[in-house]
Amino acid sequence: MRQILTKSASVVRTKAREVENPHAPEIRELVFAMKDAMRKANGIGLAAPQIGEPLRIFVAEVNKKFYVAVNPNVTKVSEETEEMEEGCLSVPGLWGPVERAARVTLEAFDQNGKPYRLKAKGLLARVIQHEMDHLDGILFIDKAKALYEIRRQEKHGA
Ligand code: ZN
To answer: Is residue 153 over pLDDT 90?
Structure first.
């Protein structure tokens, strides 16, 4: 089983590279492994670098809907921002408020290599921005206005 890396792991701090062929079967396999790792960790999002794969892929599960984004790009962000508490599977036990765009437009490929465009707001918009940061080696602790140490089990981290 792939382990979720902690913040000390350098791959989490590396800019991930584009997937050359979003149709490749290995990509679908990696997506399934990521889904599995995210669910086992009780997370709502996971980027490939978090399990040691420096590729531009993330998965998310928000309001019982599962999302896959291969070679994602955020093509639009709202001027309006929102502040919300975040946690991260790669930084266990730490939480803190992060200000992000309230709405984003995402363009990506799904697990079958099919391109799509998605308009997101609320928690999904937040998870998308959190995961996009992961693909550039950025962690929420770099942006949080404050950090709190809290141990809890609820489904929250990404
Ligand atoms: Zn994270």
So the answer is: no
Q: What is the pLDDT of residues 83-125, one digit of tens each?
A: 999 999 999 889 999 999 999 999 999 999 999 999 999 999 9
Q: In what helix (H) or strand (E) does residue 51 lie, and over which residues does it extend?
A: none
Q: Which listed residue (83, 131, 149, 154) is catalytic?
A: 131
8 pLDDT higher than 70: no
Residues 45 and 86 sit within 8 Å (Cβ to Cβ): no
Residues measured by CB to lie within 5 Å of ligand 1, the ion: 88, 158
**pTM, two decimal places:** 0.93
Centre of ligand 1 to C-alpha 129, Å, is: 10
DSSP sequence for 70-87: EEEEEEEE-S-EEEEEEE
18 as an active site residue: the answer is: no
**What's the gap in Å between 14 CA and the centre of ligand 1?**
14
Tell me how far apart the alpha carbons of residues 140 and 43 are, in angstroms, rounded to a whole number.
15
Q: Which of 49, 63, 50, 51 is nearest to 15 (CA)?
A: 49
Which among 30, 62, 69 has a CA at the least distance from the CA of 44? 62
